[in-house]
Write a structure and sequence with these properties.
The protein contains 14 helices and no strands. By secondary structure, the chain is mainly α.
Length: 352
């Protein structure tokens, strides 16, 4: 007897998940930029986000609010060395990118995540992309070059470097995440717990080695409070509120990702990503007075169009692959390695 097919998620549930991701991702970018504009300690800010998320995992586990109980096994932790190392470096570079470029330009600076992910998947998993997929990646790459080289607006070379580097690390990290899931029996929740807690432990000495110690002391003792304009928030209050907001949102996005995988389709995900990209640019103009030139707008539009085409092509290919698999199932055919999980991980890590 064939197993009973799962009922599709309700429209209200899908809408709720998409809206939550849209609002949470926008709030993460804007809150990060808000704090990074005032702090000299971006790595300490990242550490506080990870520590808050890990603490929330522990609190929820104590109150049995998670679907599975959390545990910490040293043997499992040793298998997380690669994924945690890439996570720390990738998030650090992502924060530095947002510190050195405008919020509206952040998507352009990290615009090569998709081409890098396809390239890494080809090298590591031998998942050969089609010509349609390569053309979509070419459009995304062209959009990146429009924003970086053809737009007349001055941009930070350091910000571009960190953006490209973090994009490459995100692509490699997405493959390592897929492999690391085996160490936690495929539990995305357990993987999020290990990544947040271990990343906080690893990052703390890096904060000191990077020379942020004096800046942390200056921040915690609120030395700059006397120089703050009347009515404005001090750097310490900005840091505390920003850390709390982004830490909580990061934790909630980890939890919601388990639901998102079940109720949203790739097309829905890409539409929400496109809306988020446009909204981030508009919010950057409004909150931080970013300048959106014709060249920058063209760059963002080209990257979003290429990403949308890529998603549509992959959707068509997955439909054809599924039909072929069903037709040849009796002949004992095997299913090719799928890239959807890898690309979904890359997209989630592209958010700061």
């Amino acid at each position: 007897m064939k197993p009973e097919a799962e009922k599709p998620a309700s429209k209200a549930l899908v809408t709720g998940v998409v809206l939550f991701y849209l609002v949470a991702a926008l709030a993460m970018v804007m809150a990060n930029k808000w704090v990074l504009n005032t702090t000299e300690t971006p790595l300490f800010f990242l550490w506080s986000q990870l520590a808050i998320a890990a603490l929330l995992f522990v609190i929820c586990d104590l109150f049995r609010a998670l679907p599975d109980r959390l545990s910490f096994d040293m043997h499992t932790a040793k298998q997380m060395v690669a994924v945690v190392g890439l996570n720390v470096v990738g998030l650090s570079f992502s924060n530095y990118t947002l510190k050195y470029v405008d919020a509206s330009f952040y998507q352009v600076a990290r615009g090569l995540v998709l081409p890098f992910t396809v390239a890494v998947s080809f090298v590591a998993l031998h998942a050969r992309p089609s010509l349609k997929v390569l053309s979509a990646c070419g459009m995304v790459t062209f959009g990146f070059f429009i924003g970086v080289f053809l737009d007349g607006t001055p941009v930070s070379a350091l910000g571009i470097f960190f953006g490209v580097a973090s994009s490459a690390i995100t692509a490699v990290h997405s493959v390592v995440i897929k492999q690391s899931l085996k160490a936690v029996n495929g539990s995305a929740l357990a993987l999020s717990w290990y990544m947040n807690s271990l990343s906080a432990v690893v990052l703390f000495p890096i904060v000191l080695l990077a020379g942020e110690g004096p800046g942390v002391v200056k921040l915690l003792f609120n030395v700059d409070e006397l120089t703050v304009a009347p009515g404005a928030m001090s750097p310490l209050r900005t840091f505390i509120w920003g850390s709390f907001i982004t830490g909580v949102l990061g934790f909630l996005m980890n939890i919601a990702s388990l639901l998102s995988i079940k109720v949203t389709s790739p097309i829905t995900h890409m539409v929400s990503s496109a809306v988020r990209g446009v909204a981030a640019s508009l919010l950057g103009m409004w909150l931080f007075h970013d300048i959106i030139t014709t060249g920058r707008a063209s760059s963002i539009a080209t990257i979003l169009a290429g990403s949308a085409l890529y998603t549509w092509f992959k959707h068509q290919e997955s439909q054809v692959s599924s039909s072929s698999h069903n037709a040849s199932d009796r002949r004992g055919s095997y299913e090719r390695v799928k890239m959807e999980d890898i690309e979904a991980a890359a997209e989630s890590k592209a958010k700061p």
